[in-house]
Design goal:
The chain is mainly α. The protein has helices spanning about 20-50, 55-60, 65-80, 105, 110-120. The chain has a domain at about 55-120. The relative contact order is 0.12.
């Protein structure tokens, strides 16, 4: 009920009293906590999946063709026949670039390194 002495005009939808400072502070704190939680969640998701190694991902976006496998097996065989010395470093059996490596080349570290480099588009003069 309005005070008859109050000459202010009352508009519909207007609060009759100002918002409590405690309510405003509580609401602001809740908003800040929500933003902090969302930011932390976004950072955790971004760090969960590290970027893959670009050289391996780009080189093996598609399966190598039969012609590329044959060419790289020949290149690895030539490296072995030329003396077996190759500066490509050791190659793990689980290396994805060894897809299609022939049985003759599988037993030589130099051939495996040469095959891997060939599949990645790197060829050294032996």
């Amino acid at each position: 009920m309005q005070d008859p002495m109050d000459r202010r005009e009352h508009r519909p939808g207007e609060s009759e009293r100002p918002a409590s400072p405690r309510k405003v502070a509580t609401f602001a704190l809740a908003v800040m906590i929500g933003v902090a939680l969302l930011g932390g969640f976004a950072i955790a998701l971004a760090q969960k999946d590290p970027a893959p190694d670009d050289t391996q991902t780009l080189a093996f976006a598609d399966q190598p063709s039969a012609g590329q496998i044959e060419e790289c097996n020949q290149y690895a065989g030539e490296v072995v026949r030329a003396g077996g010395s190759y500066g490509g470093g050791p190659v793990s059996d689980t290396d994805q670039s060894l897809v299609g490596l022939s049985d003759e080349n599988r037993h030589s570290d130099a051939a495996r390194a040469a095959y891997r480099d060939c599949m990645l588009g790197i060829q050294h003069d032996s």
